[in-house]
Amino acid sequence: MSAAAARDRTGWLAVPAVAYLGLAYAIPLAFLLARSVTGPDGFTLALFAKFFADPFSWRVIGNTLRIGLLTTLLCLAIGYPVALAMARSKGIVQVILLTAIILPLSIGVVVKAFAWQIVLRRDGVVSQALVASGIWSEPQRLLFTEGGLVVGAANVFLPFMILPIYSVVKLIDPRLTEAGATLGASPFYRFRKILLPLTLPGIISGVAFVFSMSVSMFVIPSLLIGDRFQMLATLTGRAFLLMRDEALGSTTAVVLLILALSIVVGSTWIAKRLGKSA
Amino acid sequence: MTSNTRSDGINRRTILAGFGAGTVASLGAPQILRAQTRELVVGGAASHKAWVETHVQPLFEKKYNAKLTFEGTRSLVNLEKMQKNKDRPYLSVVQMDDPVMILAVKEGLLDPLTAAKAPNLAKLKPGTVHMDGQWANYLQPWQGIAYNTNVIKEPPTSWADAWDPKYKGRIIIPSLQNTEGLANLFVASSIATGKPMAEAMRDTESGFKKLVSLKPNLLTVYNQMPQAFSLLEQGEAHMIVGALSSFALQRRLDGAPLGLAAPKEGIFPVPSGIAVVKGGPNADLAFAYVNELLGAEVQNKIAPPTFALPTNVDVPIPAGMPTNATMHTIDWAFVAENRNSWVQRWDREMSM
């Protein structure tokens, strides 16, 4: 048996996962898609036309995209330096950093939401620190604001930004930046011209993960901002669970799916292009 | 040749025979027992499991020589179970919120209660038997204003207190997607128009306009009750307007610094309905179970621990419950017709 044939056979290892995804994900998704384009007289796009004709729908889409974008940017801003530090650290420091990133994943969102409630309340540490530093003259509301939601969501999704970047940085030869330094390049120039382009695939993967999870989050907004702020996922949940409006629920779910899918496909395309040009 | 027979006369064959007989006995016994003891499956709220198992189950099982299984979940999940198993129902009784009962009635899932099948129907307070006996209320937890006693020393006296500017950013109300969220819509209408509550409940236009003016005072609109109470107990919120007695008074009993006021305009019942599933197993047992929950013996047991008002006229109001407050009756059929459009309007007008 040739090596190529042996390699081909390893593809069968994916069968259980593919079968599982087909049963648990693809089939229900197909039903959902079918429901969103079915009317009393058969195929129709009327549900989408109705949805997009409503200004409220655009507000919800705007909320979803804005929160997704802000959460992703915050995760990137915090996560990128952490990923660099982790990749360049050694021994026990690296273990501690990795544990600090991965361990919070085991804590449920509900627990985190209650924790944020304590941190962000008017007599909480953040508010007290802002008053003590003179930035605020008196404690103000931080809970149940868009800012609170973004901070809370970033807390949950941060590992999904750090880990892809970390795995890419680990593969970069540190001597490349050292060579730049010996040639007189400033730290900022070395970062912009050497490190950043090489870490772009990791950044794009992280952005795709965090953005797609942020736009489709359901429990986090319910707990951190309440019922006064609607995103596509919360609207979908409400349509199915409360209003029993399958038409609305399947329409919003498909819009959300297309949104998340285009981010993943778009970022994969960008990553491939960068890979070719690198 | 070695012998398989031991000195006590037990050989491999007798052991195998004994094992086989034991297996048959152990497998067969439950069937025999099941034939003697019928099972009743009741679908209800997860939070009801404790009092059902403590106060109702032993009494029912002994009295009727039956086994009671309580499946604790949410009202809408129970509805789903009834819909999906319509041809072969396995639930016999459901304990659900009244708005969900209406959906069940619309889909023909309930077997109406009659005085012949549940004699205690005759003992219920007016307004607690709905849609010609499709379901009845066995208890009435109530909605008032929960307040933090560390911050508010005098209990609020009116629902209108929520609009006081001194509570800017300190008020929590339930979402309209929660059953208890409807009270604020009706109260707002009554405050805005001065109409009696029964009339104001139909004027939701005025209710929405008044509710919008509450926005500056809102800390949040909850759909997760424990979180709302946590904020109240921490002092971040000062009042939960439209809070449930069953939750608030239990928290107070557990030592939380909060009180529950019954405002002068009256209080709202939180509909705890019970109904028999059409075509469900052991219909006679199902009606007997409903009759027990509507009866004085069970209501005397379950009203105090659930901080609810009894619906049976022979049962005294438990200590600590409001005795003189007006209890407003909600027209759930009217709610069912309009709720989705109200929720859609709520999303648009109450959003940040």
Walk me through the topology:
The complex is a heterodimer of chains A (278) and B (352).
Chain A: H1 3-9, H2 15-36, E1 38-39, E2 42-43, H3 46-53, H4 55-88, H5 91-102, H6 109-120, H7 125-132, H8 146-171, H9 175-182, H10 187-215, H11 219-224, H12 232-241, H13 246-277
Antiparallel strand pairs in A: 1-2
Chain B: H1 12-36, E1 38-45, H2 49-64, E2 66-73, H3 75-84, E3 93-97, H4 98-106, E4 110-111, E5 129-130, E6 135-140, E7 142-148, E8 171-174, H5 182-193, H6 197-200, H7 204-212, E9 218-222, H8 225-234, E10 239-244, H9 245-253, E11 258-261, E12 268-269, E13 272-277, H10 283-294, H11 296-306, E14 309-310, H12 332-350
Parallel strand pairs in B: 1-2, 1-3, 8-9, 8-10
Antiparallel strand pairs in B: 3-13, 4-13, 5-6, 6-13, 6-14, 7-10, 7-11, 7-12
Helix pairs in contact in B: 2-11, 3-4, 4-12, 5-7, 7-12
Walk me through the structure:
The complex is a heterodimer of chains A (278) and B (352). In chain A, 77% of the residues lie in helices and 1% in strands. By secondary structure, chain A is mainly α. A two-stranded antiparallel sheet of chain A has the order 1-2. In chain A, a hairpin with a 2-residue loop joins strand 1 (38-39) and strand 2 (42-43). In chain A, helix 4 crosses helix 8, helix 4 (55-88) crosses helix 10 and helix 8 (146-171) packs across helix 10. Chain A is globular and about 70 Å long. The model of chain A has no long low-confidence stretch (mean pLDDT 89). Chain B is globular, with a radius of gyration of 25 Å. Chain B has helices at 12-36, 49-64, 75-84, 98-106, 182-193, 197-200, 204-212, 225-234, 245-253, 283-294, 296-306, 332-350; strands at 38-45, 66-73, 93-97, 110-111, 129-130, 135-140, 142-148, 171-174, 218-222, 239-244, 258-261, 268-269, 272-277, 309-310. With 352 residues, chain B is α/β, with parallel strands linked by helices. In chain B, strand 1, helix 2 (49-64) and strand 2 (66-73) form a beta-alpha-beta unit. Chain B starts with 11 loop residues before the first helix and ends with a helix. Chain B is 41% helix and 19% strand. In chain B, the strands form 2 sheets. In chain B, strands 1, 2, 3, 4, 5, 6, 13 and 14 form an 8-stranded mixed β-sheet that branches. Chain B has 2 domains: 38-140 and 271-310, D-Maltodextrin-Binding Protein, domain 2, CATH 3.40.190.10; 142-269 and 331-350, Periplasmic binding protein-like II (D-Maltodextrin-Binding Protein, domain 2, 3-Layer(aba) Sandwich), CATH 3.40.190. Classes of the chains: A mainly alpha (278), B alpha/beta (352). Chain A binds chain B through residues 56, 59, 113-114, 117-118, 121-123, 141, 143-144, 146, 222-223, 225-230, 235, 238, 241-245, and chain B through 76, 103, 169, 175-177, 218-224, 227, 230-231, 234-236, 339-340, 343, 347-348, 350-352.
